[in-house]
Amino acid sequence: MVLQEHDEVAAEIGELLVGRDERVAVAETTAGGLITARLLSVPRASRWLDRGIVAYTSAAKRDSLGADMDVLKEHGAVSEEAVLAMADGLRKVAEVAWALSESGLAGPIRGRSAKPVGSVSFAVVGPNSRTCEGMLFDGNRVRIMEQIAEHALQMLKRELSA
């Protein structure tokens, strides 16, 4: 993915957050920082973006996000329960109004999960909302990562606009 001058969706997210005087933090696994990079492409993102964490391993999810390891073990890393645990933990750690998280499988080879390559779970947790979505994306590893970033930002924008 090549970043544009600034990302339109990310700019809209920033405007919504500034208008609310709120901040967001992002927990990424499969997108590997693409979500945060898109947010950071917007000038003065520091007004509304607190942090972006790439927590690829279960230990990183526990240590950096405060995610409950029992939830990860019971439901797997690519599950609504896991991404909610990640977002809830990050929201507490960062002390922000909003947290966005994603976890998925980008392939090209399936690992320990029975889920197909391209499976991704997303969560957005805010002051009065907790939303999860599951998606299945097509393409190679990089294309799946790009689709994850786009879907995550659209989901966050939708939740902020609700």
Describe the secondary-structure layout.
Elements: H1 8-20, E1 24-28, H2 34-40, E2 49-54, H3 58-65, H4 69-75, H5 80-94, E3 98-104, E4 119-126, E5 129-136, H6 141-161
Parallel strand pairs: 1-2, 1-3
Antiparallel strand pairs: 3-4, 4-5
Structure write-up:
The chain is an alpha/beta fold. The chain has one domain: Maf protein (Alpha-Beta Complex). Helix content is 44%, strand content 21%. It contains six helices and five strands; from the N terminus they run αβαβαααβββα. It has a five-stranded mixed beta sheet with strand order 2-1-3-4-5, sandwiched between helices. α1 runs parallel beside α6 and α3 runs parallel beside α5. The two termini are 29 Å apart. The mean pLDDT is 93.
